[in-house]
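Weekly sync notes, structure subgroup
Attendees: PM, AL, DS (notes)

Item 1: joint prediction request from the bench team. They want all four components modeled as one assembly rather than separately. Inputs as received:
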Amino acid sequence: MDDLETRELRYFVAVAEELHFGRAAERLGIAQPPLSRAITQLERRLGVRLLDRDRRGAALTDAGRVLLREARTALDAVSAAVRRTRRAGDPERPLVLVTKAGASHELLRALLDALADPVEVLLCEVGEQAHRLRDGQADVALMHRPFDDLAGFDTADLHTESQVAIVPAAHPLAARESVTLAEVSAVPDLPIARWPRLDGTYPDGPGPEVRTQSQLAQLVALGRTLLVIPASSRAWQWPEHVAVPVVDAPEVTTLLAWPPGSPVASLVRSAAKLSF
Amino acid sequence: MDDLETRELRYFVAVAEELHFGRAAERLGIAQPPLSRAITQLERRLGVRLLDRDRRGAALTDAGRVLLREARTALDAVSAAVRRTRRAGDPERPLVLVTKAGASHELLRALLDALADPVEVLLCEVGEQAHRLRDGQADVALMHRPFDDLAGFDTADLHTESQVAIVPAAHPLAARESVTLAEVSAVPDLPIARWPRLDGTYPDGPGPEVRTQSQLAQLVALGRTLLVIPASSRAWQWPEHVAVPVVDAPEVTTLLAWPPGSPVASLVRSAAKLSF
DNA sequence: GAGCCTAATACCCGGTGGGTATCAGAGCTT
DNA sequence: AAGCTCTGATACCCACCGGGTATTAGGCTC
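Output from the run, pasted for the record:
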């Protein structure tokens, strides 16, 4: 009566994301009628209307939005169970550490040295670490406060530092000893790039839209945007750019995060202590 | 190939908990042969041996222990999805707050007043709040640091206080201005009670074993054990007992906890600010 | 009103989850 | 040592249900 199967959750997520039964069915590799029936049955079992069907598709109800969020985390948890169990059965399983491209090499190197066991490093795009951790693709993540979403993880701080602005050497700001956030936000010819939100849409603003680190690097190199980043991120500093301290930007803490209850906790904590 | 159904997880959890196919099958309401087959199939699909079958039952492998832990959290997440979706579809859904019996009445009252919306209060035993939160039976929990397991939740502190020891008025310690943890631990005629661990076993020690608050209350009332608790817990202080400050006991923080990403976050945060 | 695009309904089929009956092997008991 | 007992595994069958195709039912556009 009240235990759903993951299949039903997958089906619902597909429909909720596509908002279209036909496309969702195609994505799932099944025909449209069984999918319609499955969703109807799901609604009957939950006793709740999830979608408002309409002549040109479907729209989520409030309850549907709740289920979409909950179903995603539940499916992640199931995936995590599969991945972690498989890895636990592998005799020479490496620890998987996920980090975004562009994190400090020195710190990463020191960390890998501190961990005696073999470690596999997985690179992902900005903001993706949490998801990799949640669905079991990684055991531990290198993340940054206050940027990354740390909700639901245990953490150990590694390093705290201030931020600098990366500007073309020829720009007026490049001569400054230091700048403020208000100043860098207001530079009209170097609007700050906009990252997508969790739902894939972009906030309004004058800056260019970017999805990946490499897109951003391209824009910075072209002198089309400026960038506020932790001081240690030397990878961004080409000869034709300079780094100017931003006095009132929040401190950035590089830290390790892992799912609560994971057996990596003790290992990682001691490594974090060792390396700093 | 790599997506399990919750049914398979439920079956495995039952076997892993009973360590006996027959009893597990009975608990699940199915016959033993299909259960054996399901577990075998699960092992084949994961490519990992989960149980060492034996003449007198079964024992978990390392991978099996991993799957047991992961499967429980995944099943909790699925239950949470069902509960929260049902509640989201209910037009006059109350917020469900879970607290252990014996928490401060004044604080709880102030909190309920601060929350404009109707709130349903759910009482549970010590240490059970986290589970109620994880499987969606509650939206927010009143918990205590450093006692409760806060892993995986967002929190807002409400109140911090020191601890006192509750001892019979006739006892020598009752005359003291203050005591230390070392002193109260060493009182031979009032050994501190032992609570079960997460797996249900008890740590060694001279004190009586308790499972519930009321059992403990009984023992305290009988003068068979002493108790170190936050100073505000007046409910424990009968006329024939006195409270003696414990100078080196850790401060106890009463706080609200909720699952990350929950829409109650903003509501609860503002209420927490209002009430203190 | 014709044509379309949507989701829902009708109906059939095959796979598989669950049932009973039975087997197989490792301790006990005597 | 033979047999009993308790375990999980195997064999086999059935019925349900998840998935398929064909079709219907609305509502929009032109």
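Discussion: Residues 20-22, 32-33, 36-37, 40, 53-58 of chain B lie near DNA strand D (CB under 10 Å from a C1').
Action: AL to compare against the crosslinking data before next sync.
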